[in-house]
Amino acid sequence: MSNELLAGKVLTGYHREDTFIATRKYMGGRPVFHLDMSISQLTIGVEAPPIGVEQDDNRIVDENRGKLFRDYVSDNEEWASPSLLLWCPRGVLEFNPITELNALVDEAVSVFGVLQVPRNARQSIRILDGQHRILGFHLWIQRLNKELVDARLHLSEAMKAGNTAVIEKAKERVEKAEFQLDRSNQESIGIDILLCDSAKEARQIFADIANNAKGMVKALSIGFDQSKIVNRVTSVVATDNPHPLLADRVDFNKDRVAGNSTFLISAKTLADSVRALSVGITGRVSRNQEIGRMDGEFERKARQFLDAVGEAFSTDFKLTPSEMRQKSLLGSGTFFRVLAGVWFELTSTTDTNGKPIKAKMTSSDALAFFKKLAPYTAIPLKIDSGWLTTGAFPSPAKGVVVTAPSSRNQDLKLLTNEITNWAIDPTTLPFSK
Predict the structure, then answer these.
(1) Mapping DSSP to helix (H, G, I), strand (E, B) and coil, where does residue 53 land?
(2) Residue ranges of the chain with pLDDT lower than 50?
């Protein structure tokens, strides 16, 4: 073997441990080591958490959440994530401070050094916080490797067939797959490894983290997260280029508006309505719709619906938001969302999967139907109210004040279907003429 082949090489495959530049600090009296790993290193060094299985030191992992994070990293080259928090029993890792480097820092809170992780002890390093992100990274690496293998096989078959055009496309596919896989080597994430004595202690640490973390309400997330089509359209019709019905009347800080709030609707309810207008009351936006950048179509449907409810229920919308919540069903975010679902059922030219269908009504006819409902929106509902025939409202018996329908998914769907049937067959409308 030529010496040139070994020049500058380090045969790391025979090492018994992996070594990293790291810092040692203390959190709650416990030692914590911080280091950075590439995503490919992470998936080799930290096992994917088991899916749907109870664990001694953490909660059950939901595969769908892992897939969502996989898709987020895959689709966004500018992805971001906080450090992952792992735990390890004492005595497994070895840390050696770098004296020369630490001498440059007087009274340092963190000590710089070299962290040694034995390869035969990798399973001793467990996940404290970040299970679904680690699962997502594993699923991403699996998909990248599968695509590279498939792309190279396709190129091999194309070269055997000898079709130049097919060969060039196959080469492009391989290059793209290699680029994506290389991302996992070039991109890193922070790792904090906390030393503790038992799975019981790790459980308590996880509980402490969960109990003291303030989650982001859905309404605020909608305003911040513009990667999703529903969130983008919600922001446009609410703030960027607000519809007259919504200008300065959408709350992005609370998931539910109530009482004397000057806001008409929450961003969460508006986003749910925007979604319902394109995929139905309980539908989900497909991946194709997300990546297809159909913002214009989603926005068109939203504005058309807002125009219609503003015209049909004009008397209600002349009230202040707090007055509307006291006097009209339109003050209920749940009812507003149901009307959006009804509008979809009556006027949409695509089904919940985006496939072309024939609309049940024209927009003009649907508007005329909404106007028929306008005289019957007064609340609280009385015992003989036609709305109670739907089964989607609580009963006002025994003094119960009923101002809105149930928000359970099955009741949302039930009420949407009932109102849609009233439109299609006017003889079923349960109100006095």
Answers:
(1) coil
(2) 1
